[in-house]
Amino acid sequence: MQLSILDQAPISDGKNAQEALYNSIELAKLGDRLGFTRYWMAEHHDLSGLACPSPEVMLGIIGSATSCIRIGSGAVLLPHYKAFKVAETYNLLATLYPGRVDLGLGRAPGGSAEATMALSDNFLENVRRTPDSLDDLLHFLHNDFAKDHMFAKVQPSPVPQTEPRPWLLGTSEKSAILAAEKGLPYTFGHFMSDRDGPAIVKKYYDRFSSGGHISRAEAIVTVSVICAETTEKAEELAMSSKLWGVKRSKGEDIGVPSVEEAKNYPYTADDLALIKKSSDKMIVGNPQEVKQRLDDLCKLYQVNELMIVTITSNIEDKFKSYDLIAKEVL
C-alpha cells in the first residue's frame, strides 16, 4: 500500500494563516522523511478557515524544502483559469523539481458564489467546457496540437525534462467517466462524497480508454484519518474535526475548534445526525485499527494508494497521526 497526504491548510481557532501555511511546509517535510508518496495541497477561496488559495505558490516553496516526495495540487480548479497559464505554471514547477510534480485538476468552485464571480466570468459555462479545457491543457503539456491548430506554435515555457503528471479529481460518476475517457489517472474524494464510491471507481476502471495518456487505469482514494496511540485518544482528537464540520455546515467559516470546545458544545439533534454521517466516512483509531481499515478500504475500492487528510486542532497531534500511520503501514 502506498500512502499520500492531502493538505487543506486549515487554520486552528486562535491561530492565523501564516502559522497554518508554515505548518503545511513542515507537514510536507515530515511526509518526505516518513516515505509518503505524494503531498498535495488543496485550493480554496474566501474561506477564512482555510489558508491556501494558490497551491502553486506553496509548492514552489515546498519543493525546495523536500527531496523525494511528489508534490502537487489537489486540485487546480480549472474553470477559473486558462489552460495555457496552468500549463506554464506547472511546467515551471516541473522544471524546478523534475520527476516530482503532479497536476491535480478539478472543476469545483472552491468557495462562495461571490468569490467564484470575483475569480471568473461565466463559471457554469466554464464548467460545461471543462472537457475542452482539459484537452487544451493536455495538448499544451504534451506539445502535440494538430499542425493546423491555432495553438500549434504556442508552447508553455519552460519545457521540463519530465512533464507534470495530470490527475483528474472528483466525487461523482461524471468525473470518473471523464478521467477514463481522457486516459487520465483518477482521484476519488471518499472523505467528501455521499455517493457509492466503490461503484464510481469501478466505473472509471471499466470505462478507461487505453488510447489516452497513460497505459493503464490508476486510481487514488482520499480518506479522512485521525490516528493516536489509543482509540480513546484518537476519538477525542476527532471531536475537533467533527465540530468544525458542524459549524461549517451552518455557514460559520471559522478555524478548527479545540477539543475542549468540542467537548462542551451544545449539540442539537441535527448536529449529532450530521456528526454520525461524517463519522461513517472517517477512519479513527489506534495504529493497528487504522491499518486494518486502510487495508479494507484498498480492497473495497481495488486501489493500491490512499491519500490521507487529517484535521486536528493541535498541529503536533496531526504530525503524530501521520507518524504513527507511517510506522505501522509503510
How would you describe what is shown here?
By secondary structure, the protein is of the alpha/beta class. The chain has a single domain (2-231, 282-329), classed as Luciferase-like domain (TIM Barrel, Alpha-Beta Barrel), CATH 3.20.20. Helix content is 47%, strand content 16%. It is built from 13 helices and nine strands. It has an eight-stranded parallel beta barrel, surrounded by eight helices. Strand 5, helix 7 (173-182) and strand 6 (186-189) form a beta-alpha-beta unit. It starts with a strand and ends with a helix. The mean pLDDT is 95.
Brief synopsis:
The chain is of the alpha/beta class.
Write the layout of secondary structure elements.
Elements: E1 2-7, H1 17-34, E2 38-41, H2 55-65, E3 70-77, H3 83-96, E4 101-106, H4 113-119, H5 123-128, H6 130-142, E5 165-170, H7 173-182, E6 186-189, H8 197-207, E7 219-227, H9 231-249, H10 259-264, H11 269-279, E8 282-285, H12 287-301, E9 305-309, H13 315-329
Parallel strand pairs: 1-2, 1-9, 2-3, 3-4, 4-5, 5-6, 6-7, 7-8, 7-9
Helix pairs in contact: 1-2, 1-13, 2-3, 3-6, 7-8, 9-11, 12-13
Domain Luciferase-like: 1-297
GO molecular function, one term: oxidoreductase activity, acting on paired donors, with incorporation or reduction of molecular oxygen
Protein name: LLM class flavin-dependent oxidoreductase
